[in-house]
Amino acid sequence: MKRNDDCWCGSGKKYKKCHLDFDERIAEMKFNVNKSQIRPPHHVINIAKDIEGIKKAAVINTGALDLMAKLVKPGIDTLSLNDAAHEFIVSHGAHPSCLNYDNFPKSICISVNNVVCHGIPSKKVILREGDILNIDITTDLDGYFADASRMYIVGGRTTLEAKRLVDVTREIMEAGIRAAQPWHFVGDIGAACGKMARANGYTVVTELGGHGVGKKFHLEPFVSHDCKENTGMLMVPGMVLTVEPMINAGKKQVVTDAYDGWTVRTEDGSLSAQWEKTILITEDGNQVLAS
Ligand SMILES: [Zn+2]
User: Which of 112, 139, 167, 289 is most buried, by CB atoms within 10 Å?
Assistant: First the structure.
């Protein structure tokens, strides 16, 4: 690309006034292949109009998660929660991204107690007082995706151990977000999450993780929540990714339901929790786009 060409990012500015310095900074960096350090590809970089698009999708996504807080109570089945979230998203002109994604049959994921993630909403799953559950919603609007999940406690009260898992997992997510800094590597996120999980006697699921998001539902980089610092993809301003640690009270091993092909449970039956935000890497840190 020449200095006077239109920049590759789609801003309409000349390359020399837009991403030339950015590209040169990356080109000058030494990448350590032994730490799987890699350069971020251009297609994961978002510009101002992309961020506005993601934020608009996020407003609806946040509304759906807020609605769930009002509806989660003893006796409700998870299909009813799914249907309410679906209706909310569609009525705002958006689309629930999980629906039919890789043949996922429902609009959102609801994962109760020992279910780690990707729980399929069902009439047969009826919430009971003290259950803990994760509701994971992704909304796309005009081609932009916002992804977030939260924990809910049915009836507002649960055991001390379940409450502690829910609260500490949220702190682990926040530690991961604090580690997401421009011109550092994505492995810093997993290093921060893993350290805090272990300090609290918990384990981290490593078969699944976070991901780039924004112009697509799933993009590079893969975001591990338990790995070494200074590994993986370089984080740069304009990158949008999810931080979404899955934390187990028992062992880290998980199994995927052979019958439905989706539901991921802890192998030992222990409780699992997860919180997720979509964040933007900025010039001086990061900004939460969806939570
Ligand atoms: Zn540019």
Answer: 139
- How many angstroms is it from 185 CA to the middle of ligand 1? 21
In this structure, the dihedral spanned by the alpha carbons of residues 103, 211, 227 and 275, taken in order and rounded to 10 degrees, is: -80
In order of 82, 119, 157, 166, 218, the CA distances from 125 in angstroms are 12, 10, 19, 20, 28
- Which residue type occupies 273? A
Q: Which residues place a Cβ less than 5 A from the ion ligand 1? A: 7, 9, 11, 18-19
Structural domains of the chain ordered from first start: 35-290 (3.90.230.10)
Whether the pTM exceeds 0.85: the reply is yes
Q: Alpha-carbon distance 222 to 177, whole Å? A: 15
CA–CA dist 141, 150 (Å, integer): 21
Model confidence pLDDT, tens digit, residues 2-37: 999 999 999 999 999 999 999 999 999 999 999 999
Taking Cα atoms as reference points, which of 262, 243, 225 lies closest to residue 108? 262
d(CA 174, CA 181): 13
